Amino acid sequence: MTAPLVCWNCGASLDDIPRPISRHANCSKCFEVLHCCRMCRHYMPDKRPYCDHDRAEPPVEKESANFCDYFKPTNRYSESDASKGDRAKSDLDALFGGETVDELDVDDVIDLPDQDDALNKWNDLFDD
Q: How confident is the model at residue 119, as a pLDDT?
């Protein structure tokens, strides 16, 4: 029995995706396209032109949906690829203090004028 297919981007199970995988199919978790080079068994990221099929014409964007007739889905998920995103997020957190937008108090960041003061200035513009 073959291993169940998982998304090339997030590793989520693709049991709910009908076979054969359509060009319009997306992962239900991360919404990445599935009929793409990154999900194909012919995709070879270490080799140019990235496809080991003799007759295929590989598209420029390997993460975009394509019309390749030689598409054969396989499990291409890699923990190391996913950890790159986690490392990037932790680097950004270290750079900016790790606060999310929800944790920030907007009034502390932006000194907003009082509403009455703004209304008074507006009225002053049109006084005779």
A: 84
Q: What is the pTM of this model?
A: 0.59
User: Average pLDDT of 103-118?
Assistant: 65
Residue 85: inside a domain, yes or no? yes
Task: Name 43's bridge partners.
Answer: 51
Distance CA(23)–CA(21), nearest Å, equals: 7
| Domain encompassing residue 84 | 37-126
Q: Within a domain: residue 8?
A: no
Whether residue 20 is preceded by a cis peptide bond, meaning omega within 30 degrees of 0, is yes
User: How many structural domains are present in the chain?
Assistant: 1
Phi, psi of 64 (to 5 degrees): -95, 150
Q: Exposed, middle or buried, 76 (CB in 10 Å: 0-12/13-18/19+)? A: buried
Contacts of 44 (CB under 8 A, 6+ apart): 50, 51, 52
Cα→Cα distances 45→28, 37, 40, 42, 103, Å = 25, 10, 11, 10, 40
**Cα–Cα distance measured from residue 2 to residue 8, given in angstroms and rounded to the nearest whole number:** 17
